[in-house]
Amino acid sequence: MSTSIQTLGSLTSWLNTPKGFLVTMVGLAAVLVLLGVFTSTMTIAWRELKRHFRSLPSYLVLAMFLLYQGVVFFMLIHLLNTPNAEPSPPMRWFFGGVIWFYPLFVFIVSILTCQLLATEQRERTIEPLMTAPVNEYEVVLGKFIGTMGFFMFMWAWTLAYIVILKYAGGGQQINPGPIMASYVGTMLISGLGVALGLFFSSVTKNIILALAATTISLFLAFIAKLLLVFDVVKTQGDKPGKFMGIVSSEWVVKILEHTMIIDFMDDFSQGIVDSRNVIYLVSGTALCLFAAVRVLQLRKWR
Amino acid sequence: MRNSAVIQVDGLTKEYPETVAVDRISFSVSRGEVVGFLGPNGAGKTTTLKMLTCFMPATAGSATVAGFDIATQSLQVRRSIGYLPEHNAVYDEMRVAEYLRFRAALKKVPWRKRRAQVAEAIQMCGLNAVADRVIGQLSKGYRQRVGLADTVVSKPPVVILDEPTSGMDPSQIVEVRELIRHLGRENTVLLSTHHLPEVEHICDRVVIIDQGRIVLDATMDEIHRSPEGKERSLEEVFLEVTDTPSSFWYPETSKSKPKDRAAEVDAKPDEKPDKKPDKDKAEEVRS
After folding, report:
1. Beta-carbon separation of B78 and A131 below 8 A
2. What is the ipTM, given to two decimal places?
3. Does pLDDT of A147 surpass 90?
């Protein structure tokens, strides 16, 4: 009994090393690829991923993203190199300063997701799709995984910054833990956004409507965060949080503060993977995907 | 119920808030038969086919396809059919062979057989020349053939085609006709179309539906020989049993005899669908 616990303990500590983490990720990817031979979900996901690499909006998003992240990284390094700057790991600021990335994130998510199911319904390709032997949940999950694949591809380019820091950083020590936590957090938050966009894309066959709905709902979170920041500035951090007097109820303020996905990146970038945040993001994603499946099934009750 | 009935429809009904699209229809298709499913626009053909392929549920009644119930065994039904929808919709950004491989995978064709079956479908539908082209760049006729290849790629026992020849030129229509006849040797084919000569050439039996009800269910021999022993064409029978008044299409000849009317139809065969705007609209709303 005790040996098994020890083995388990050493296994978890091995998983926490960068090597273990990489091996796990590669293993997971291999399992997914193997499943691709057998399941409809992965067939659809693969097709969706390929579609992203053949569509102009996806390339525009990719270019916009890389340009923006490049500028941010450059400016970060520049700032941290000024003589009176405190020594601090650049990647922590790269991921922690997410509030300035968030508006771009909103557009990226809505542009990448608005087509997923809306186009299928407008072009009626949903008809051959749903008369093949597949379930609604396989379709929704496949499209979700495919789009997440594109997100991973997009973010994978930022790994170059770590390489740059390692070889051009003047021998500065790089702590892999917070960086891995940051990538996990980024993917979880992107997952929530993609699932939300997928849901809006399932309710309408109008791409513009899906785009607008996703943009607006994700942007509301940004506005709430801005109000919160302004509040703190106005009261000098003394009695923060009433959303500039818009929200009066005490517990609504509490809920809003705890569900602020923008703040989650603060924790992740310091290497804190808080189970509350993870559960919140994962369950939110699952809820949106479930809603999208239900909307697709609605066709059967008309 | 005969044992060999591959498609068995019993009192299938589809109601919408304002209209009844399909009204208690019943018919059956035996193994190896090629059945033409005819009717004017908005008669309920597409609705019926959508119910048979489990795309939409029936309001009442039941049907079995390949021995599986469409309401309770949807996955098994969809596994055993190949369906070409009315507006043949294919993914524009994919290449022809790639699309067919994708569809074969979705239809659970075993991994080992996929390549061979895709190649066979490409060969069968004359897509060899365009197998590596992007579907979005193909002509309408070729896109339709891609749809047809998709319906046969999993070698289903039942093939359901909704207007397979729409948008094709005469030589392509002849090719598709040959293809369907070829399919009919091994498979059961249910074919919905406006194109009557096609039906006369390839179908063993005809089911005519009008305003949601079946008005005729007869073999080609029965149609060509009226009860009085007179020779008649499918066109005459079609116009006779469907309820649409001839004045709707040709107001100026509304008082002429049926014989003359048939001649008129021969002269301008293309104008039939165009001259019924209201029914067209109704169909659009439904689908």
Report:
1. yes
2. 0.81
3. yes
